[in-house]
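tool_call: predict_structure(chain=1)
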Amino acid sequence: MTSVELCPKCHASIALTSYKLSFEKDFTRAYQNPTQSEVSCIKSSLGNPSTERAVLAQEIERVESMLIALKAHHAHLDTYIQRSNQYMRSSPIRRLPTEVLGIVFASACTSFQRNEYKTPLSISLVCSKWRDIALSTPSLW
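tool_result:
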């Protein structure tokens, strides 16, 4: 009898029995039917292996459903990591500190002629972060 560990955390295991027919070598005889005593011996010995087989089938089904759930979560984590990395690499301007963006905005608004595209209002319409920066930068107004 051998034992297979199913869970390394809780050390749950399942015992596996190795079955071997005492008359297995006789099955290699060509074209000979088993004797009546061999048939009754086989029938009586099928109880435990059949029960163990049913238990193993249930355990396999349970583990396979866990594997499906783990694979789904693994795929979810892959997607999350990929999107996070894309977000971090997406635009260098996202890495600029707020103060630096405020200076850039002020420079853009003062170094060119003020027209409808170079006003602080236009800058504040780009996104919520830029709006917050534009509104909190007094030199723009």
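agent: The first strand starts at residue 2 and ends at 5. Proceeding to next step.
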